[in-house]
Amino acid sequence: MTLNIQNRLSGKLFLTGLVLAGLLALAGCGGGGGSAENDRLQIVATTTMIEDLARRIAGEDADVVGIMKVGEDPHVYDVRPNDAVAISRADLVLTNGFHLEATLGGVIEQTARGDVLHLAEVANITPIGSTVYEGAPDPHCWMDVRLFRRYAEVLRDRLISMDPDREAGYGQRAAEYLYELDQLQAQILSMWESVPRDRRVIVTSHDAFNYYAAAYGVEVHGVIGISTDAQPKASDIEDLRDMITERNVRALFLETSVAPTLNQIVENIAEATGASIGGKLYSDSLGGPESPGATYIDMMRHNTTTMVEALK
Fold it and tell me: Mind giving me the DSSP string for 126-172?
């Protein structure tokens, strides 16, 4: 772990600690989990992908609230006062785990009164890829549809165990969603068959696509590592430019949820190497309701279509 990364993380934790007492006081005024208006489970989800998953499986049998908004980066998310209130009142808090939620994870640990389900960890996923913080694995497991399928199974089982009277609804919606994920997996594999192996090289703003690469037979490179809280090194950017030139990489890709400075670096590299910008990819957040990445399934289909069309 480099010193500058340590300093940034420590600073964030310090600032979070300053406001956490106030957040806890607000949360304490609201009582425990559950709703005064109904007996449905109250669910809080951290990321937009997890919120989408929860809504698909919970349906009308539970109330789902998402913390992060469209386009927000979980690696550098700034905790809002209402987050602690929502977390403290939830019967179930859903996180990705593997330290994706960064400082929000500390708020969850200190304020959650109901169950907390770290989906990637409970699903027994073996992390892959490099690390940025010592001991912190690559958290972007949802980029492999088969692993996100395991998120769905874990959530289904937890909802049924917590709310057995609504088992039929949870089970039916989960079965329908798992079928859609299986269809998506087959579609992604089929789409990549049109791209020759030597062209399957992807360069993006940060290293969010390692699980995608392993699942679908592509090679990925990021301007920075798995956390957008890191800073790119000049030597790494130079090495990336050299690789793009030597291997005649056809297209580079921007991301929708990273800082503009990272996307600008990608555009600068493209200009310097003669590669094109192949489009924008959704990585750590879904898109808005009218976007091509409005749901997890939409996101994965859009990402694949964008990459395949640019690399053919």
Answer: PP-S--SSTT-----GGGSHHHHHHHHHHHHHHHHHH-GGGHHHHHH
The Cα 126–Cα 61 span in angstroms is 32
Task: Round to whole Å and give the CA distance between 288 and 143.
Answer: 19
CA atoms of 171 and 58, how far apart (whole Å): 10
In 3D, which of 186, 188, 206 has the Cα closest to residue 252? 206
Contact (Cβ atoms closer than 8 angstroms) between residue 208 and residue 140: yes
Distance CA 83, CA 30 (A): 13
Which residues fall within 8 angstroms of residue 248, CB to CB, at 6 or more apart?
none
| pLDDT tens-digit readout, 71-99 | 998 988 999 989 999 999 999 999 999 99
Question: Is the separation of the CB atoms in 116 and 93 below 8 Å?
Answer: yes
Instruction: Tell me which H or E stretch contains 278.
Output: strand 276-281
Per the CB < 8 A criterion, the answer to whether 78 and 127 are in contact is: no
Sheet (strand 41-45) strand order: 62-66, 41-45, 92-95, 115-118
User: Is 0.85 surpassed by the pTM of this model?
Assistant: yes
